[in-house]
Amino acid sequence: MIKDYWKLIQRKVDWPVFLISGGLLVAFVVFSIIKIDLVSDFVSSGFDLSIRYFGAYWQFLMLATFIVGAILAVSKYGKVRLGDVEKPEMSYFKWIAVILTTGLGAGGVFWAAAEPMYYFLDVPPMQKGIEAATQEAIAPALAQSYMSWGFTAWSVYGAVSSIILIYAHKHKGMPLKPRALLYPILKERILTSKWGAAADIICIIGAAAGTIGPIGFLGLQVSYGLRAIFGIPDTFVTQLAVIIVLLAVVLVSTLTGIEKGIQFLSKLNVNAVAVIAVFLVILGPGQFILSHFFSSYGTYITDFVKISTFRGDDAWLGSWLLFFFGWFIGFGPLVSLFVARISEGRKIREIFLVVAVVAPIVTNFWFTVLGGTGIFYELSHVGSISEPLNNGGLPSAIIAIAEQMPLGLIMPSIFLILTTLFVVTTVDSLP
To answer: How would residue 6 be classed by pLDDT, with cut points 50, 70 and 90?
Structure first.
């Protein structure tokens, strides 16, 4: 029995990819334990160099991916159904819910609350002449958050790459691995090519880096929330305990599979978000949210090219726009693999519209619900959000906002649970 299992592993595992990617990740963890300052400096220096030499390319890549996907969707090829099944396994609601929650991750609450507030208090540099923390700063602040989580960002999550993966896997018999993205160039050589192995290794490391971010944000957010709500010390031990609980939930969800675990959590997330959004629109600053969503979207569309191609402030870009773009690009191939797994039987046009249009619009409205509510409270009571944000950093934003919402005694706890569910779904969806 053991021998048979070992033979199965030997057939399934790509040992060069496993050993190189696994070895690098283990080395990273070990050095993080014994030389955290050295690792921190290495990561910071590497990111700074990436911003300096590849920042403009990242911005071009995001735009190009969206444009290519849009051209495919409106062309005659948009009607092509991918895969070898006529009917997709998931309903539209489940399919969209899984894609949304997988792509959002920590952004579902952590960044949705904090990012618009930061832009409101410190207007992005491309919007010159606008005074911070005023009515005029609302639209630029929300529009900038839309760009970070908008059409081009979501496009990298599968608007084109998932189409290539489904085609290579289902129609050409290639393995459903990152290397399949190179099929249009290398054809069947991706099975043995060193370039194929390199693609797998780089994407695995990128996925690990992309996963570390949401898990880290979750640890910070929940640990801060536990201190603010229940008085539990915000320490490393608390953050570690949060991460251990997260991994336990991920394990349970993984063992139940896509059909039960991920679909259940995704539906729960989306339903919870819908209930909270309706609740705040009706009982909270609903007119403010709806009005500024439409006006800010006008700013986003009008200034789309200016915002997405801005190159005037490397420090600001590295802290915000390119930070998110680099995250999406690194994490994108693995999310695309997941989108490809659940999108068999869909048309090219459907995949593009859901991933690159529907998902970002829903995301942007949710950012307006949370971030816009925070801006409303800050305008009504100056310092009510900005002071906790300045004193406690990013994790304090959602707690400060939630405490001022209707039912403010229980809303902070609800958002902590929602943050956890978003991150669990993202981590759980990795192929």
So the answer is: very low
Q: How far apart are CA 419 and CA 41, in angstroms?
A: 29
Overall average pLDDT of the 78-99 stretch: 87
8: pLDDT confidence band, cut at 50, 70 and 90? very low
- Among 415, 410, 423, 375, residue whose Cα is nearest residue 395: 415
DSSP 178: G
CB 250 within 8 A of CB 428: yes
Kindly tell me if the per-residue pLDDT of 271 is higher than 60. yes
Query: What pLDDT, on the 0 to 100 scale, is given for residue 419?
Result: 79
Residue 153 pLDDT more than 90?
yes
**How far is residue 392 from each of residues 141, 377, 385, 415, measured CA to CA in Å?**
21, 18, 11, 17
- Cα distances (angstroms) measured from residue 143 to each of 138, 139, 226, 360: 8, 6, 31, 12
pLDDT digits (tens, 9 = 90+) for 111-135: 899 999 999 999 999 988 899 999 9
Phi/psi for 204 (5° steps) reads -65, -45
The CA–CA distances, whole Å, from 391 to 20, 316, 383, 422 equal: 42, 21, 11, 26
Residue 298: both structure tokens together: 């006008």
Query: Cα–Cα distance between 372 and 276 in angstroms, integer?
Result: 14
The pLDDT of residue 123 is 95
248 pLDDT more than 80: no
User: What is the token pair recorded at 203?
Assistant: 């994407």
Long-range Cβ pairs for the range 131-138 (8 Å, 24+) = 133/378, 133/379, 133/382, 133/386, 135/379, 138/292, 138/295, 138/296, 138/372, 138/375
Q: Tens digit of pLDDT for each residue in 317-354?
A: 999 999 899 888 988 888 898 899 889 999 999 999 99
DSSP, collapsed to helix, strand or coil, labels residue 303 as coil
The token pair that represents 347 in the structure block: 């048309």
What was the pLDDT predicted at 1? 47
Phi then psi for 81, rounded to 5 degrees?
A: -95, 130
> Comparing C-alpha atoms, which of 374, 311, 325 is closest to residue 151?
325
Angle in degrees, 0-180, between the axes of helices 263-283 and 92-104, rounded to the nearest 10: 80
Which of 221, 219, 213 has the alpha carbon at shortest distance from 242?
A: 219
Distance (Å, whole) CA 191 – CA 328: 26
Q: Look at residues 69, 50, 119 and name the one whose alpha carbon lies nearest to residue 322.
A: 50
193-197 CB contacts, 8 Å cutoff, 24+ apart: 197/14, 197/16, 197/17
